[in-house]
Design goal:
Layout lengths: L2 E9 L3 H13 L5 E4 L8 H4 L4 E2 L9 H12 L5 H21 L5 E2 L2 E2 L12 E2 L5 H15 L3 E4 L3 E8 L5 E9 L2 E12 L20 H9 L3 E2 L4 E8 L12 H5 L3 E3 L19 H15 L4 E4 L5 H7 L1 H9 L9 E10 L2 E3 L11 E3 L4 E2 L12 H19 L22 H15 L6 H17 L7 H22 L23
Parallel strand pairs: 1-2, 1-10, 2-7, 10-17, 16-18
Antiparallel strand pairs: 3-6, 4-5, 8-9, 9-10, 11-16, 12-15, 13-14, 14-15
Helix pairs in contact: 1-5, 1-11, 3-4, 4-11, 6-14, 9-10, 12-13, 12-14, 13-14
EC number: 1.4.3.16
InterPro entries: FAD-dep_OxRdtase_2_FAD-bd, FAD/NAD-bd_sf, Fum_R/Succ_DH_flav-like_C_sf, Fum_Rdtase/Succ_DH_flav-like_C, NadB, Succ_DH/fumarate_Rdtase_cat_sf
Family: Belongs to the FAD-dependent oxidoreductase 2 family. NadB subfamily.
Length: 512
């Protein structure tokens, strides 16, 4: 098998991967960095992010202590307080770095317009209208393209991570499937920045590429995952049952004044939480789930008929255009919404420098479990986490870069051409299992049944098929099993996890 060598390999082209590459480029101008995307280079979960990034930018009306408190409260006892403090305190610095790179947040110069979202006690969300993620990715990609030592490669699917037993089981690169066939890429350091796995559910805000590749790659090379039971469901995704890619209605819309109503017109979330429609996502998603179950309806309503339509279109142009396309007149009609799989709060265990338990394998972004989010992520803390840990990882390499000797002889030739198997049908089977048994509310019997069905599917899948569709399906089954197993191991309900046979929450602790 042919191979090539780079100094640093980045798997994933979202905010974690691209910002890490940029920092490494600055710190190591003579080292070669390659960024791999399994699809187009601008396709990622980040590109879909509407809301923004949480940071304390106005110390007269906000404080680090308050942001920390809000994050810990949302995390419901599973956050690492030291990590929360570090991330919150580094947030303003990361926002200034984005501005320096060329991101233009809404507002005037050094006074950004700060929005409010569920779980936040005050306005602290920096945003670029309602397309923050896409705006950031556009800037980061431009910067990466300008860097002489960064190479961006699209349509590169990572089949497996490589390791060398003679080097203390260190990760030494990746085997990839590309338009030019299968080959090995050697690297002194490999960064996993692969995002989440929303596609294991049929109703998700995530793009089609979000199949959980990083989770599975990490498991296969021998590193550990944690808190996989804690899947966050975004409360307000546009209800359109026949649409392949459901459209998310940003939490910022509720921060701007929209309210949730049931089919009787009641602001029902107040029955569950005094914060109403601005409660944390776990609370709101379960409230909607309960209302849907009780009413027999398929969705609830998001009401912003009281908005000035011109202001709404100016502040949320993407959402406004989408609703117009759907023939929803927000002046007179409410918007149908329901929860959808959105974010994995658990993942690959890392320390504050993005180090995993496998030497020379780093990780950042949604594929990780850093201790920041705990049992439920606070809105707009995800892009922040990716930025902080990507920079930490790059800074640590600046003073601790260790080169490896590459030797990947004996890697068999692999064909990743399209298979004849009907994997789309099997993917739907996985999604049906997860939808019915591993959703907002879970039960022990359904989880046990889901595990048996997923294990049966796993045994049916040929291990010798290396087509991308086959690999993605094996990944989805592995990730789904990890979620099910961790759900069965839980002993109490907290944050985004709820099992109906676990009624008592164990003592809440602020740190792990």
């Amino acid at each position: 098998m042919r191979s090539e060598s780079h100094d640093i390999i980045v798997i994933g082209s979202g905010i974690a991967g691209l910002s890490f590459a940029l920092h490494c480029s600055a710190f190591f101008p003579l080292r070669k960095i390659v960024v791999l995307s399994k699809a187009l280079i601008n396709e990622s979960n980040t590109s879909c992010a509407q809301g923004g990034i949480a940071a304390v930018m106005n110390h007269l009306e906000d404080s680090y202590e308050q942001h920390i408190k809000d994050t810990l409260q949302a995390g419901d006892g599973l956050c690492d307080k030291r990590i929360v403090e570090m991330v919150v305190q580094k947030a303003p610095e990361e926002m200034r770095q984005l501005m320096q790179w060329g991101v233009n947040f809404d507002g005037n110069g050094n006074q950004p317009d700060l929005g409010k979202e569920g779980g936040h006690s005050t306005n602290r969300i920096l945003h670029c209208r309602d397309h923050t993620g896409a705006s950031i990715i556009e800037v980061l990609l431009r910067r990466c393209e300008e860097a002489a030592n960064i190479e961006l490669r699209k349509n590169h699917f990572v089949l497996e991570l490589l390791k060398n037993n003679d080097l203390g089981m260190a990760c030494t690169g990746a085997m990839v499937c590309s338009d030019d066939g299968v080959y090995a890429i050697n690297g002194h350091y490999t960064m996993l920045a692969t995002g989440g796995s929303g596609q294991v559910y049929s109703y998700t805000s995530n793009p089609e590429i979000a199949t959980g590749d990083g989770f599975s790659l990490a498991m296969e090379i021998g590193t550990q995952l944690k808190n996989m039971a804690f899947v966050q469901f975004h409360p307000t995704v546009f209800y359109s049952p026949n649409e392949p890619n459901p459209f998310l209605i940003s939490e910022a819309v509720r921060g701007y004044g929209a309210v949730l109503r049931n089919h009787r017109g009641e602001e029902f979330v107040y029955k569950y939480d005094s914060r109403g429609s601005l409660a944390t996502r776990d609370v709101v998603a379960r409230a909607i789930y309960n209302e849907i179950q009780e009413s027999g309806e398929e969705h609830v309503w998001l009401d912003f008929r009281h908005f000035d339509t011109n202001d709404f279109a100016l502040k949320f142009p993407t959402i406004a255009a989408y609703l117009i396309n759907k023939n929803v007149d927000v002046r007179t009609e409410m918007v149908p919404v329901k929860p959808a799989a959105h974010y994995f709060c658990g993942g690959v265990i890392t320390n504050k420098f993005g180090k995993t338990t496998v030497p020379h394998l780093l990780a950042a972004g949604e594929c990780t479990c850093t201790g920041l989010h705990g049992a439920n992520r606070l809105a707009s803390n995800s892009l922040l986490e990716a930025l902080v840990f990507a920079k930490n990882a790059a800074e640590n390499l600046k003073t601790n870069f260790e080169e490896l000797q590459f030797n990947h002889g004996g890697i068999p030739e692999i064909n990743c051409s399209c298979s004849e198997m009907k994997y789309n049908g099997l993917k739907k089977n996985v999604q049906d299992i997860m939808d019915k048994s591993v959703g907002v509310i879970r039960t022990k019997p359904r989880l046990i049944s889901a595990r048996a069905k997923l294990m049966n599917l796993k045994h049916l899948l040929p291990k010798s098929d290396y087509s991308v569709k086959a690999c993605e399906l094996r990944i989805m089954v592995n990730v789904s099993l990890a979620v099910v197993e961790d759900s069965l191991q839980q002993t109490s309900n907290r944050g985004g996890f709820y099992r109906d046979d676990l009624n008592e929450k164990s003592e809440v602790k602020e740190t792990l």
